[in-house]
Amino acid sequence: MLVWLFNMLGSVLRGTGNMTGPALAMLFVLLSYLAWMSVAFDPTAEPVAALRADAVALLVAYSVGVVAVVLMLLRRGQVVRLRVPRASDIEVAIRVLRQGLIAGTQTVFTVAYSLTATALMATLGKAWLAGYGVAVRLELLLVPVIFGIGGSLIALVGARVGAGQRAQAVALAWRGAWLTMALLSLIGLVLAGWPQLWCAPVSSGPAVAETCAQALRTLGPFYGWFGLGLCLYFASQGLNTLIWPVLGAVLRFVIVAVAFAAGLGAAGEAGPSLIWIAVAMTSYGVFVAAALWLGPWRIRTESPEVRT
After folding, report:
1. Cα–Cα distance between 208 and 121 in angstroms, integer?
2. pLDDT in tens, 146-191
3. I want to staple 121 with a disulfide (CB 3.0 to 4.6 A). Which of 57, 132, 144, 214 is the partner?
4. Contacts of 278 (CB under 8 A, 6+ apart)
5. How many whole angstroms separate alpha carbon 298 and alpha carbon 306?
6. Is residue 5 left, alpha or beta, with left meaning phi > 0 and alpha meaning psi from -120 to 50?
7. How many CB atoms lie within 10 A of CB 303?
């Protein structure tokens, strides 16, 4: 609940155009976590005790973060202020939940995809399970990079749509999406060429580092498509076109689920499984971009807004 509340309140601040506040609050979370763990963590303790200390540190850190964001929202002069809800707010809540349920579906299928892809690699043995897990941590760390652009697009695109400038909003969304794709493609290609830059420092042994490196050599060149699809998901929140990124997430999950059901990992070779994961990643970005380009984001030349 604390993690959810922190992110929800941070989204409220970002919606007003305040990007600095949520970033500072996240810094408070990080520093609080490190401070607590430096005192509470005992590397010689039993694994259960160590995990318990980590869990408590996480809760303490997000408690600090929630307090920080609430104080920011209570400041004098804040555009959006917290107040006691009224009965008339139920209509607004329903509209928010309707959009949120669509966005939440994307999250559900993203988690389902991650679990299925991990299960697929686990059939190859412990070394591959650990190595792929290390490689996926890089993919997860790229999400904040995407969010840095995509989170800004939610506010910028939404403001233009609200002002009746839909063509400009769509153009801005595409620029942000292509920038994200270029940035993640560069990161992915660098780490595909030199995977040990990531795998060696964070792996538990040579076998895990090697399987991690093999995973990045295959998946790294396709990270740009993942970034493109996810950035378009953020921009779609401002343009009310979320259904297409959600369907892209469903497609990505289905491709990996088919590979898992077909027992690709049973042969003991990682290549086919990694190729299917790369195909799923690429299909996600291609499908979302094509669906938006040919569908709701298609701006016709005869539009008076475009001529203006």
Report:
1. 13
2. 988 998 898 889 889 989 999 999 999 999 999 999 999 999 999 9
3. 132
4. 218, 219, 221, 222
5. 12
6. alpha
7. 11
